[in-house]
Write a structure and sequence with these properties.
The chain is mainly beta. 10% of the residues lie in helices and 47% in strands. Strand 6 and strand 7 form a beta hairpin. The longest helix has 25 residues.
Length: 324
């Protein structure tokens, strides 16, 4: 029985230790350094990343435990584990032309999650170094800002994950870092829970930021990084209807689609003046809910959503090719 109590205590101790460690790393003090690991984004998981070396900590603590309580003394940094990413090739396909292009991205093999970070890709004999600012398809409304100057570089990421109520309502926001030698890794982060949230549009956000000061040849440079990740509740779309309207608001075209099955581009009719997108959903009380969005001739695309089996709703962009 005592063994079970110790394990429970150790589990909550780990959460406390890792929360403390990540908090220290995300609120960095200015320092004169060019070699410290830098925050570059987040890796979102529905399961807690258990990376702390409990066995090593317990073996080296030389303490006897009683009553299921553990006292923590000294630094625990050396017991903090990392989830290392691998740089792998990736093929991009232009949906309009079918043209393929090759690039590279960092992935966390064997671990399911949503990546959203901006990593530096080192130069090779065939290309120069570059910044990879990609993200998982689950990141909607993503915005990346890269500002470079002699005084310092500023990088900001902002994205939203739309999730269905009643599905995976707990997400762990694990900070991702990159070392001076290019290694990308994640540390265990804190969880956000939305259990019991039943209303569409409910939104929760978390911001991670850090700043770094370096001095080289007597020139001081301050870099900063910030990532904001939001979770927004969305009822799963069941049907999408696209209405083309003329100048008199008469329906000249009406087409219904299953979510996710809309083509990548639409050419509106010549006399179409605007488009209305209707999305049919069902709320948690089994009531029909219809949302509508309007797009005029100044819009070059429209967006719809479809939800995956894991409850994450993906935004799909559809190009509008207006006739002039």
């Amino acid at each position: 029985m005592m063994k079970y109590k110790v394990r429970i205590a150790v589990f909550f101790l780990a959460a406390l230790i890792l929360s403390t460690l990540s908090g220290c790393q995300l609120a960095q003090e200015d320092s004169i350094s060019t070699t410290e690991d830098r925050l570059i984004g987040v890796f979102l998981t529905t399961d807690y990343l258990d990376l702390f070396d409990f066995e090593g900590y317990l073996n080296n603590s030389n303490r006897s435990f009683s009553g299921g309580e553990i006292q923590v003394d000294g630094s625990t940094d050396k017991y903090q584990g990392r989830l290392n990413a691998e740089l792998r090739p990736k093929t991009l396909i232009n949906q309009e032309t079918g043209e393929k292009s090759e690039t590279e991205e960092y992935v966390f093999p064997g671990v399911k999650g949503i990546s959203y970070f901006s990593a530096n890709i080192s130069a090779t004999t065939g290309r120069e170094s570059y910044v990879s600012a990609g993200s998982d398809e689950a990141i909607s409304d993503g915005h990346t800002s890269l500002n470079y100057s002699d005084q310092g570089n500023t990088i900001t990421l902002d994205g939203t994950v739309y999730i269905s109520p009643g599905m995976n309502n707990t997400y762990y926001v694990n900070p991702v870092y990159q070392s001076i030698d290019g290694q990308v890794y994640a540390l265990s982060g804190n969880g956000i829970s939305m259990d019991g949230v039943q209303s569409e549009g409910a939104n929760y956000s978390q911001i991670l930021d850090a700043s770094y000061t370096s001095t080289e040849n007597r020139n001081t440079k301050k870099d900063s990084f910030s990532v904001k990740i939001s979770f927004s509740v969305m009822f799963p779309p069941e049907k999408v209807t696209i209405l083309q309207m003329d100048a008199d608001s008469t329906v000249i075209s009406r087409k219904e689609y299953a979510p996710g099955e809309i083509q990548t581009s639409i050419t509106p009719k010549e006399n179409a003046e605007y488009i209305v997108v209707e999305t049919l959903k069902t709320d948690t009380s089994d009531n029909a809910l219809i949302t509508r969005k309007l797009y005029g001739r100044d819009a070059d695309s429209l967006d719809t959503f479809y939800c995956r089996e894991d409850g994450v709703c993906i935004k799909k962009w559809v190009q509008l090719k207006w006739k002039k």
